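Subject: complex prediction, re-run

Hi both,

The earlier run crashed halfway through, so I resubmitted it with identical inputs.
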Amino acid sequence: MKSDPIEELRRSGEIVFTADGALIVSGLPLRLMRWIDAQLRQLGGSLTEIQCPALIGRDFLERANYFESFPHGATCVEATQRCGLLAPAVCYHCFGMLTNVDLNTPAEITCIGKCYRHENGGTDSAGRLWEFTMREFVCVAPSEVVQQQRRDWIEKIRSFADAIGLEGQVEIATDPFFGDASRGRKLLQQLKELKYEFSVALPDGSRRALASFNLHETFFTSRFGIRLFGAPQAHSGCVAFGLERWMLAILAQRGIDEAAQLCG
Amino acid sequence: MKNGRLRSTLFLDVSEFEAALLRFIQTELLLGSNLTLNVDGALFEDSIIDSLKILQLLAFIESAIGRSIPDEEIVMKHFRTVRVIAERFGGEHRLDEI
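This time it finished cleanly. Structure:
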C-alpha cells in the first residue's frame, strides 16, 4: 500500500500541525514552500515587493468594510492594555499604503505575509489553517487592464500546474470574496465572475482551493481614495496564493521523491 | 398549474417580455439615475445593478415566467443584456398559466 506523503513527513517531524491550526515546517516541506514562492514571484515579473506584518490596523479593515462582510471578525491579540488585529489577507496592507494616493500610472505590487482566518473553527491537515502564508499580486489600473491581468494570471497558473504535474481546475468560485454576504451579493459576484479559484483534488476526494483570482471593481479604490491619472475610476484586482496549501497539495499529488526533484 | 390554482399571465411573447423588462429596469431599478438603457446595453457594467437590484430583477423575471430560477442558472451568458434575458427566459412562458 502506497504511504501517505504527508503522514510520512509528520512522522519524520518535517511537518508539524500545531493544535492551534498552524504549521511548523523544515527540510523538504520548507524548501518546497520557498521554491513555490520563488516560482510565483518569477511568474509575476519584476514588481515592487512588500513584506507585510501580521498586525493590521482596525481602521484599514473598517475602511474595507471587513467586519460587515465577514461577521466572524478578525483574529485579535492582546497585550497589557493593548489589543491588535491580525491580517486576514495581505492585500489590505497594499490598499492601506495606497490610501488617498494619486497614481500617475497603474500600480502592480506583490506582497507576502502571514494571514489569520478562523472560519467555522475548523482546521485540517489539507491546509485549512488558522495561520498561513499568503503571496498576493495586486493590480490597480483601468478596468480592462485589471481584467486582462487576471486572464493572464489564470493562464500562467494553468501552465505552471501542468509543468509541475499538479492536476487542478480553474472555476468560478461560489464562496464570496467580499464576505458571508446576502444572496444578492453572492449572485452578483457569481454573475459578474468576480472570483475564480484554482483548486485541486485531494486523496480523500475533497477539493481544496490553492489560488484565487479576484476582481474588486472599485470596491477598494473608492473606499481607500485611490485615484489613477487618466482613468475615470481606478479598478483593482488581486491574485492570492496560500503557500502551505500548494506545498501540501504537491506533496499529496506527486509524492516526496518527485516533490524533492522539483525544488532541488 | 400548481394545486389547481391559476397563475396570472403577464406576457404573451418574447418581444413583449423584453419591452416589459426594459421598462421595469428603467423605471424601477434605474429610478433616480441619469442612465438610459437599451435592450442591448450591458446590464452588469458600471454597477448599474447592485446586490439589492439583482434580487428585484430576479423577482420580476420569476414572476413573469412562473418559476423560480436556481442560482446555477444565474450566469452572465443568460443575463448580459435585456435582450439576452428575454430570449433565455421569455420563451418559457406558457399560455396555460392563465
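Chain A has a mean pLDDT of 91.

- K.
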